[in-house]
Every structure is written in C-alpha cells, then in structure tokens.
Fold each of these.
Amino acid sequence: MLIILLTVLLLVGSIVVAAGKAGHAKRVALVFASAGLVISLIMLFQFRSGAEAQFVTSIPWVPSLNIHFHLAADGISLLLVLLTTTLTPLIIYSSFNKQIARANVFYSLILFMQMALVGVFTAMDGFLFYVFWELALIPIYFICLLWGGDGRARITFKFFLYTMVGSLFMLAALIILYLHTPNQSFAIDQLYQAHNTLSPTLQHGVFWGLFLAFAVKMPIFPFHTWQPDTYTNAPTQGSMLLSAIMLKMGVYGMIRWLLPTVPFGMDAYAGFAAILAVIGIVYASCIALAQVDFKRLIAYSSLAHVGLMAAGVLSQTEHGVIGAVMQMLSHGIVVFALFFAADVFINRTGSSALNALGGIRTSAPLFATSFLIVILGSIALPLTSGFPGEFLLLSGIFQFNIILAVFAGLTVILGAVYMLRAYQKACLGERRVGAGEFRDITGVEKTVFVIVAVCILALGIFPKPILDLAGPSVRRLLEISSQ
Amino acid sequence: MRYLISLIPVLPLAGFLILAFVGKRLNKVSAGVIACGTVFSAFILSLIVFMNANGNPTFENGMTITLFDWISVGSFRATFSFLIDPLSLVFLLVITGVGFLIHLYSVGYMKEDEGYNRYFSYLNLFIFFMTLLVLGNNFLLMFVGWEGVGFCSYLLIGFWFKNSAYNDAAVKAFVMNRIGDLGFLLGIILIFITFGSIEYASVFAQAGQMQPGGFVIIAITLLLFLGAIGKSAQIPLYTWLPDAMAGPTPVSALIHAATMVTAGIYMIARTNILYTMAPLTLQIIAGIGIATALLGATIGLVQNDIKKVLAYSTVSQLGLMFLALGVGAYNAAVFHVVTHAFFKALLFLGAGSVIHALHGEQDIRRMGGLRKLMPVTWLAFLIASIAISGIPPFAGFFSKDEILMHVYASNPMLWVLAVLCSVLTAFYVFRLFFLTFSGEYRGDPATIGHLHKTPMSMSGPLIVLAVLSAVGGLIGIPELFSGGNLLGQFLSPVFGQSALHLHLPALSHEVEYVLIGISVVVALLAVLFAMYLYAYRKEVSVTESSALRPVHNFVYHKYYVDELYQTLITKPLQWLGDKTYRILELKVVDGVVEWIGRFVVMCGKSLRLIQNGESGIYLLAMVVAIIVLIVTANF
C-alpha cells in the first residue's frame, strides 16, 4: 500500500504544483517531495529483512493480456526508491536560490518524474515497467527542452530519439518473453520462466533488446553520445535528475530485468557486453582528462563510473551486483553534488569553464572543503561512500575475468588524475586577475553541501545497512539466473 | 586495556575533528596544545600498552579488538578491528613518539603561518590514519590507513596552496601512490579469492601450509609489493618523493621520512610469511631495493637543495630496507625503520631549523659557517650525520650492520653494492654537513644579520632526537657485541613462521668482524674525503672545466627520469585524451550515430511519399503488419 500511497502522493503533488501559483511552486513541491521521503522512510522501517518483495499491490489492469498493476519492493527496489526520494527534495531545494521561469510547470515536471521513477523501481510487471520507463522520459524531455541552454532543441531531440529507440528494443524483447511465459503473463516471476521455452537464438535476441535499452539509458560505450551534450546543456536540476537518478534506471534494469531473465543470452554475451563497459571506463576517463568545462568533465566521469557498475552487474557475481547497488547510491549523491558545485561556479562566474576559475579556496574555504569531500567520494577514497562499492565492483569483475578487472581498475588512477586536477584548477593557486571575489557558500548552498558531506562519510564508514538490505535480494536474483 | 588501545587512534582523530570544526575560533596556543596533546597522549598510551605487552603471551600472538563490521558481503568480511602485536607496537611507538616530537617542533616552525590551525588538523588526521594502518587486523583496514595517509600527504605537500608548483607536486604524489594502490587493491582481492578471507590470522595460517614458489602466491606478493613501491618511493615510482619536499619541512620529516614512506616496509614485514613463500618476489624486492638505494645515493651526491639531498637520501635508505626484506632479514628492516626514523627526522628538523633561521633559504651553496651561530642545530645535525653514515656506536651503525650481515650471507656481490651505497651515503651527508655548517657564510649578508632564533619548542625535539640517534641502536645490539638484540627478540613471534622456512645462513664471528671493519673504515674514509673537499679545500660545487662536469650534470638532473616520464607517460596520456575526444568521440562514435540519424530521416522523407492520404495503402500496411505479428508470435 505504501508504494501506491507514494506514487499517488507524488502525482497529486505534480498536479497541485502545476495548478498553483508559480511563486509558491518550489515550496509546495518541496513539501510533497519531503512527504515522499517520509513515506519511503516508513517503508524502510517496516521492511522485513530478506529477499521477499514487500508492500505488494497487484490489481488486474488489462485482464485480457494478463497485465497487472503490480508494485512491490525488495531490498534493491527499496534502496533505489530511497535514493529517489532523498535526492528529489535535495534537487528541488538546491534550486531555491534561483528564479525559474514558469516555475509551476518546472516543479510539477520534477514531481511527475519522481513518481515515474518510483514506478520504474517498484514495477513487478513487465508491461507496467515499460510504461513507467517511458513516462519518466517525458518530463525530463520537457525540462531539457524548455529550460536548457543554447542549441537545446537539437540536443534534446537527439537524446529523446536515442532513448526512445532503445526502449522500443526493450518492448520487443518483453513481448517475446511474454509470448513464452507459461500463462501468457507480464508478471515478473512468469517472465523469469520464459527462458525455459525460448530457443537460444531468441534468448540472444532478447538479451540484446533489453541490453540496448539499458545501455542507452546509462549510457554504456558506444551508445553514449547523447549524454555529454545533454548533461552540459540541460538546466542544472535536469542534469541532476538525469545523472543522479535516471541513469540508475539502466543499471537497475540490468539487475532486475536482464540478469535473471535470459541465462543463455547472458552466457553468450555478458562477457562481450562487459568488455564494452570496461572499454567505456578507460575511454571516458581518457576523455575526461582533456575536458576544460567542469560540467562536461562530470558527464564523462559519470560515464566511466557507470561503466564500472555495468561491468559489475554483467560479472554476475555477488560482489559485482551488490557493489553496483552500493555504487548507484554513492554515485547518485556524489554526482548530484558535483553538478551542484558546477551550479555554484556558474552562479558566481557565469561559466563552469575550469580555466576561468582558480584560487577559490582563499575566499571560499567552506565551499572548497565541501567540494573536496565530494571529490574524495568520487575517487573512492576509503571511508567515503565511493569506496565500498568500487571495491566490491572490482572484486566482482576480478572474479569474472582478471584482465577486465585490471583495465577497470585504471579508473582508480585516472579518476584521481582528472578529479584532483579539476579541484586544483578551480580551488587552488592564485585567484585569477580580474575574476573578482568568489563568495563562500551560505544558506541553501551550505545546507545542501553539509547534507551531502554527511551522507558521503556516513555511507563510507558504515555501509553495512545498505549491503545487508541489498544482499538477500541480489543473491535471490543470482540464484534465479543460475537455475 | 582494550579500551586504552582503541583510544590510540581515536585521540588524534578527535584532535582533527576539534581543529576542523572549531579551529577558526581557536587561537594558535590552544590549537597547538590540542594537536600536540592528543598525539602525546596516544604516545603515552602506546607506552603503557608496550609495558604490559613485553613478555606477555597474549600480545605476542596478537590481541584483536573488534569495533564494528565495515564491509561484509556473503563470505567476505572486512571489520574495523585492531591487532596489537609486537610489530604494530613498535610502529605505534615510532609513529606517536616521533610524531609528537615533530608536532612540538611545528609549534615553533609554523608560528607565523596563517594556516597554523589547518596545518595541525591535517597533521592530527595523518597520525590517525597512520595508526590505523599499523593497527588494522585485515588487509582492507590497512588499505584504509594506506590511502588515508596518502591523502594527508597530498594535503600537506600542497599546504601552501597558492603555489601551483606545490599543488602539482601534491597531485603527482597522490597519483603515483594510486598506481601502487591499484596493485595493492587487486592483491587484496586475489588474497580473498585464494584464502577466502582477508584477515591476517586466517590468511597467514593458510599461507604457512602452502607450497613455496606457487604462481598465485607470487602474483599476490608482487601486487602487494606494487603498493609498497608507490608508498615507499622505490624504482620506478620514486619521483614523487623529492617533489614532495614542497610541503613544510616538519611534514617532510614526519611523513616523507620517518613514518608514511616506511609503510611499505611495514606491509611486507606484516605479511612476511606470504613473501617467504614467494622466493622469486623476494629476489625482485632485493634487486629493486639495491638499485633504488644506489640511485638515490648517487643523486644525493650532487643536489644543492638541502631538502632534496635529504629526500634522495630517504629514497636510498628505503631501498636499503627493501634490500633487507629481500634477503629475508625482516627484523633488520624493521630495526632500520626505527633508527632511520630517529636520525632522518633529526636531519630534516635540523635542516628545518637552518631554513627557518635563514628566512627560507634552502640552497647549501648560499649557506656555510652556521656552526657558531646555531650550535644546538650543528651538534644535532652532526650526530644525525654520524648515525646515518653507520659509524659506531651511533644508532644507524647497528641497524645497517644487521642488514649488511644478512646481505653478505645471502649474496656477497649484493653486499659490495650495499657497502658502496653506505660510502656514498657517508659522503653526501657530510658534504651537506660541511657546506652548511663549516667555513664562511656564502649567502646574503643581510640575512645573517638577523637570523630567526630557534625557539625551545624546536630545539627541544632536536635534542631528544639527537639522543635517540646516538643511543637508539642499543635496542638491537647484536649477539656479536654480547648484546641481547632486544628488538629482535621482541619481534620474533611475528617472524617466527617465516624463520621456520627461511633458514638464514649464519656467519662466523671472524667474518662478521672483518665485514664490520671494512664497512666502517670505508665510511670513515668517505667522511674524511668530504671533509677534505668541503671543509679544507672549501669546494662548493663542481667547477665548469672539470672532466666530471657532464657526468655531474647527468646525475644532477636526476638521470632525466622525470623528463622521461613526461615524454613517455604524461604527454602521451594528454595527447591520447585530447585525440580520443576530438577524433574518436566527436568524429567517429558520434559521427556514426549522426549518420544513422540522417539516414533514417532520409528514409522517412522517401516513405512520406507513400503517406499520401490514400486509405487503401494504410489498410494494406496494417494487414501485412498483423500477419507478420501473428506469424512471428507462433514461430
């Protein structure tokens, strides 16, 4: 029931905000998003440990096709719902200093998107999953299109088209699975059994259909070229939604909908797909070295990190998949904070070009320290949130293939190079001539950074609750896939 | 007792947190008191634990204190647990003891600095991570300390963050360490896969049963050693350490001489049984050790920056310690870590006093004649120089002697090279000493007029360290001089398992006397030669016309290794990044996507011709589509 309550609340919130005055929009939206956080926290406390999916709601939706409105949450889903409900209020709050045109529409779209994301992470019916998957695309499309920077029409169109095409492959794959379920149903447990009657060739096809959709969404090399432009061009809150939450749809999709579904397909192609993911890690890290704009640098660093998560999932090991879940949470928080830092640069200097910054530390020590903590989270220093996930991912990949692990591990080195260089260029050295005083963070900015820093350290020092929550569910999915 | 032990890392952490959160509101005195007080208390606690541990069987086998589960997934379990045993105690005493002295010294040295409180917060954080490194009871917790001290090193090298060159040095140090850390990390994963655990006790017990020389154990030890290469500045990852001298001088003494850089030796001493089972790795370690020792010593001969000489000296001495590890003399290596912490910290702090007095001057060509002006520093520096040269009965003699004996027993050729290295060491350190303290002052007369006084907080630590450098060797007097080798006995439980496998050959007393005689005599000759050149003939640097000039230049430029790395790694990586972005990413990968997009649009335009509103065609298309669907559905 709680999941339904959560989605309905967010949907109502979205409508209320849209209908209300633009002046009140951000506050009303924050109230609804915070209420969502409260509900998900109640879910967390009511959750009984184990692999079982809980808070089940299953209502027949299209009886003729055996489609159910079936929402439920196991440990993995719950963690991603929590990520969504924690970050969305933060994303809304992070915009409090801004004057946004047509604010009611803007915030309404954010809430709508949050609703769709919760749906994606809790849908236990293939068709419903697809519906939420596509629903999530609509608000972010408009957010990028209406509030983006120069050249947004073309960039957003490319993004939309690219992900749409990916989704169509997924729909086709889901339909094939549906046709091979014992009782012609989209229920997830049924879809997991479809492989029994699927020919190996069709399994390969289904693998690629699902993989393409998820690969485009994350994105995985070489399906990523929509991403850097979109991240750079979108309004900051849009980039945050895309990178901090939306890309997790892809990783989550792989864990829930690909890994256990087509064992033959995984056997045949998981290795190849993992190679692509690892190439992406090295490729994106190298490109990040050459970036001079901080937003674009975040985009490529995100590409590298998500490649590691994908390779971990494709390794089909306990460490790899749990590491991916852990890293989704850490990456969500870190990348949100990185984009927020970029926003701080833009507010102060009008651009996020690293060459225009420098010496910020002198006048803004609090910002510089917060920024450094975020960067440490990003380069996975032990005791920050990035480390448990990165270690488990590398361990999982190592158990799958040693050579892949060595290449994937290059992110440990290259990540430190481009991130510390960015920090150096922005915060250290002398303040640039003519580049006025850089105000330190206060009020909203300070609050956001404090919350983020606490999360990064807390998850790094005590990741146990998360690993315990994800563990049973991950093991169950791996068992299904190995049957 | 358990409670006390847990407090050892917690105290400096508390100091860091206080300074980090309320540091702005504290004045310099209270910040200094908090920073020094926490480390001093940690030292006292370590001392109490040590007193209790001596001869106590619970400690000899290691006492474990588990705080909480950190990362556990399935059968993998990394806990926050401490292990107190003789090895961790020796390191704890050095870290907190020398650490406290350097904290105290910093009170005077950094007095004028505006980042005073920030400096002490970093220093406390460093002590926290360093104690964590030696206290962890599993590989992953060691890695936490390992990366943590690396991060503190990054912060402190770039402490004066307005200077871009310093920041570059900080990033360089962190990145080169991370190259090693990747090896370490993969090594930990391989350990887990091989032994099913990352806890020392379980891993070592299983390793002792293994067949020596197996492929997996060699892979594990080499991966871990890669970490040690980075952290302890060995070939090929040593170039960050000389650059790290950008940090304040006490930092160079603490982090880049006495403690952090010896973490690599700690790691191998801790995991000695793994290395004992991998003779090939030991040989590689010995080779890299002696090569680094000679490389560092030769470069040290010709540097003119007082801190650079000491930095290369550290590289060289660390090489010597790895040589000891490589011949299986784990105990000797740890012994040298201890004495080296005394005399190298002293050399750096002495250099710091000189730099402080001369308003930041670091070039020894512009020093000289400081003996009368700075008598305490002069004496301290002299004692440290004798100690590092291996002249009896100072501290360095005993530890170096123990290393040389084992090296000779293992391979006399290596011994010749090691003695050559001590000759070079004695020469460069006394070149430094005479150029700094004897003769006439060669710098700016204005500076000498008002030298900065060395306050008590600075000369106090100098005196204590000078005493330790003089008599610190007593903890390990070998049996040859009817000593009990207290340190060796204390540490023997840690290396006991290895001793069963290693069978180090013993030398007869006559051979030992001859070897000691040779090494001491040649070291003395080197000192006399340095005295002749720099005190008597008052040479300052190699003259233009000298035949040695080209060689000198080649060595002076550090064999152009930095330039080599620039050309071979840094520049190509930048080039690769740039080209990958501009060509592969924008033209090829995205180009294909755009091309497909255009192709589809083109098809769309052609297909539009069909969509002419003729409903018959639509109907036909629909029927065809339905048939296709039905056919494929039943396929």
Amino acid sequence: MTEMPSGDVLAVRELRAGYGRRVVLENISMTLAPGDWYVLLGPNGCGKSTLLDCVASRLVAGGGEITIAGFSLSQNPREAKLRLGYACAPDTLPALLTARQCLEVHAGAKGLSAIAGDLLALAEELRFTPYLESFVDTLSLGTRQKLAVLLALVGEPLLVVLDEAFNGLDPASGLILKRHLRARLDRGGGAVLLATHSLDIVEHYADRAAVLIDGRLKREWQQDEIRRLRASHGDFEAALAQSIQP
Amino acid sequence: MSALLNWFGVKSSRLTGAPRLMTAYLINGNRAAWQRPVALVLGLSCLLVLVLLYLEREWVLRIVAWLRHQILTASVLTIIASAVATARRRVRKRAEFARSWLAALPVQAGIAVWEARLLELLPAAAALAALTGIFLAVAAMAPFTAGRGSGSALTVWVSMSGGVIVGAIASYGLRGPKPVDLPPGSRYVPHGRIRAAAALRPSLQALGVWPLRLMFARAQPKIVARAILPILVMMPIGTSAAAALSIIAIYVVAGALLLLMPAAIAVSGLSVRWMAPLPVRGFTVTRAVLIPTIVAIVGAGAAEGMFLFVIGVSLRAAATAALCIAGAGSLVTMTAARLWRARLPAGSRA
C-alpha cells in the first residue's frame, strides 16, 4: 500500500466538467477520508461516470481542483496517479493483449518490481488465474470485469475508483470483491469511490453515500446517518429513496 | 444507401416499416455535418478523372477499342464478378442482420424482401452508375475525337452493364458461400507457448506487440489468399520460381506494412487513452508502442530491398528503395501516431 496520507485521500473542490459546450458537472465538492467507502448514486446520465473520469484524469476538468492524497491531479499528476487505481469499462480493455500482459503493463507503468501476493490471491479467489494467458477478446463480460478490477488494485493504490464495477460479476465473485475491499479499508488501506445503482452496497458496505442529480450533489449521507438508516428501517432501499425526496 | 435514398428524396416516414433502411437513413442524417466536405472531395475527384480522361483521350480510345474486341470475355468476366460479389454480399449481410439489434423486429415479409434486395444489390447499382458515368464521359469527348470510339463505347457500356445486371440476378440462383461467423481477432494472432507457471513481470513491453497482433488480426488468411491470387495470375509465363517467390514476397511485405502502419497509429491512441489514469507519460506509452513497429518497418524496408535485388534491380536502386520505405514508413507512422494521440483524449471545455 502506498504511504497513508495525513489528510484526505481524495478532495474535489468546485469541479466543473462537461463535453464541449455541454456542462455535465457543476460545482461538485467532496472529500474522502482514509478508510472511506464512498458510494455515488444517481439516475442514468446524471454525471457519475463523468465525475469518475475526471478523478481518473480521463477527462480534463473545465474548472475546480482534484487532489489525491494531497497531490494535485493537474499540477502533480504523476504523484497523484501513483496513488490512484481506476477500473476502466471492460469493453475498453485491449482486446489483443492477454490478461497477464494487461497486469504486467499496469504494474510496469506504476514502476513496480513485482505484483503483490495479495492481488494474486484475490485473482485466485475470484477464479481468474486460469484466464491469465487468455486474450482479452476471448473473455466473457464478467471475466473482463474481474480483470478491470484487478488492474485497478495493482500497486495497492490509496484511492480505488470503480465505475459500476460489480456489473456482470456472478454473485459469489461480487461478494468476494466487496469483502476484499471492505477488509482492505478496515486495515486502514486508503479509500474506495464507487459509482453504482446497487443499494445493497450502501446498506452493507459503504461508509458514506451521495446522490448526484443533473450534475449536482443533491444529498450526502454521512457514516452515522447510514448507520441510523440501517438500524431504524427494515426496508433500507425505501428509506434511502424517501431520503432523496425534496 | 442512405445517400441514395436522400438522392431520390425518400422521406423518413415512408421507411418506418423498413427498419434497416430507416436506420441507414437516420445515420446518414446524423453524419450530415461531415458529408459536405466528403461530397466536395468526391466532386473534385470526378472532375479530376474527367480532366485526365480528356488529356489522355487517345489512350482512352485505345482501351475502349481493345475492350470492344474483347467484348465477349469482358462481358463473361463482368457477369462472374457481379454474381460472386453479390452472392458474397448477400451472405454477409444476412449473417450481419441475424446478429443485429434489428433482427427481432416484426417486418412485413414483402418489405423485408425488397429491403434486403436493395441492401444486397447496392454494389451492383454503384457499378452500373460508375460504368454509366465513364460512358457519358467518353461520349462527351466525341466532339474532340471526331466521333471516334463513340460506337465502341456504347457497345462496351451496354455489354458490361448488362453483365453486371445479369450477374446480380444470376447470383440469386447460385448457392452462396458458407456464412462466416466473425471470430475474435485474436484467433489469427500467433502466440508462443503458454508460460502458465511464470511469474508476472511488470513491464510496458506488451504494448509493443499490440500493433503487430492487430496487424495479424486484420490480415486474416482468407484476405491474404485473395490478395496473392491475382499476383500469381499476373505473373508472366516463364517466370522462374525464385523470381516468382521474390515478387510474392515483395507484395506480402508491402501488404504487411500497409496493415502495420495504421495498426500502430490506432494502438498508440488506444493505449494512451487506456493508460490515462496511470502514472506514466503519454510519450512513454507511445514510445513503448512504436519502437517494435519502427524496428519492423526498418526490417520490412531491408527485406523489400533484398527481394528487389534478387529479381534483378541494381544494388544501388534496391538500397535506395529500402531506405525510402524504412524512412518514409517510420516518419509517417510516428507523425500520424502523434497527431492521433493529440486528437483522442479531448479535454472538457465546459
């Protein structure tokens, strides 16, 4: 694991982003403290993936600032990216490389001398190891998703950014991954930023959550609020939906 | 197809029962922004062809006269080409449609048939249009050639156009080739023995093999075979085996280069985008992608020079050709990769 920061793992300040003239995100500010599992909720097209793309520097923000473990993504991108792990969409993985080569390239780009045993153990647990020598274009959607998540975890980054990373995973693999991420955070290992529609993750694993609507953060739940929701309502999903109402 | 529909002023509402044509029409509408420059380039190209035909009118008349003498062969060949091309397109289009997002839509049987026919016969229609265009161009030269060749041109046009039509119709009586289920590209990529027990070694090296693999994936065995066949046919009788093999090798290496260069350009952009969240500079990624490609281009240049020397080209000319191929190929690939890389991850301007 990269050295733990004393401050926030991720700080987003007054972020503004979009495509061409179309503004997708407006005045987004958020912070992730060490140990946080932060879930971004929201309807389709509300800007969740755009926000994650900005954090993963796949999209240049039009305004505002993003810092990862205190390093500005615009001014000190190398140091910031050394502490970042991003799970790309499975269909953007290079079709003609093998899974092993994808892992080697990611590890090489992060300047690692070897891949941690922890990650290889996770690959084994996810029953991914037999696919290491397979070309990406021969892998199923779920297996590609596993590869994307494993790539995000190469180098034990402080901040793990996952965009709908549980889509396509079988329930057993999904559970293994959720438990792995939770255990990683409980050991004091950085933070997770996840965009998803699965409320069960908020119910069982997340520390904080927020709902993004029309490019703005409309509502944020802190850890104690989520605990209260878990404790006081039998139907967490309905309670969460009710909380979103104005 | 959609351009053709627009040309005839077909309204989208008339196509609602024909989903494939409707889709083509709508896609065409979405592309309107860049259609104007394409139309301009096409128009200018046609004008250039007309000017060339006019400047070389004596040659054109000779070709027309030669075709007039060989009219039976030309017609038969046209029929065969039209029949084979239409049959292949029919099989491919049907296979594509079976997998397409429109496959499950309810379409009236009659409409489905004419919709499929329109799509399948499009190249034949394009060939007819091209032949007619050429005939009109040759006919327009009549005042400058004292009417020589007009009769021959008309005969050639009627025979070859008839050949295209007969071939296209006859193709529906032929049994089409076996439908090809498009395989994953990696099926054609040669790869070494599996190192199942080997440890993972962090490195950017794999990026370098990506363009080479893309080249192999695009150069499918069928395509290579089809490309080599005309070269063999064109070989003059009496060519020695060594010369024939060298000539084939020259074409194969040139073909490989033509596939490798765009593959490297595409991969340099894709890899930069894939690796944007990683702590590595775009330049480093592009370098890792391009170095093996540049080595391959230089090697291909040397091989071309060697093969040219074998078929009797002077050492000096062969060496010059090798240097030109290596230099121009490398330069074009690097420049295009740089431009492509700059273009891909467009930043937000919001």
